[in-house]
Structure formats: C-alpha cells, structure tokens
Design brief:
The chain is 74% helix and 0% strand. With 70 residues, it is mainly α. The chain is elongated, with a radius of gyration of 17 Å.
Amino acid sequence: VSLVVLLIIAVALGLTHGSTSLEWGQVWEPQSTAGRIFWQLRMPRVIVALGAGSALAVAGLVFQDRKSVV
C-alpha cells in the first residue's frame, strides 16, 4: 500500500514540478502554455517512465523465476 502511495506522489510531482512549476488549475486549458507543457512534454514522459519501470520489473521477475527453475 505504501508503494502505491509513493508512486502516486512521484507521478504528481513529476507532472507538476520542473523548470516551470505548474498549478493543477492551469493544465486543463490545452491552448495555454502550461497546458502545452503538461500535455505535450510532461505527461508523455511520465507515461513512458511508468511503462519502462513496469517492463524492467517484469523482466526481473522472469529472470528470477528462470534462475529458480534451473
């Protein structure tokens, strides 16, 4: 449970903090500068990071499972 909370906090910080700090209310206007930063830069970066982390976790699980079988 604590790892899920930590993941949610890390995603929220990754989306709102950077060289330009964003407020949550600003990001819902897609034509604003804050909206473009959020939707075109930060959101894809966080999604790719979550996917890469998940893939590494699955690869580690498969590797450990193969080692225990052999």
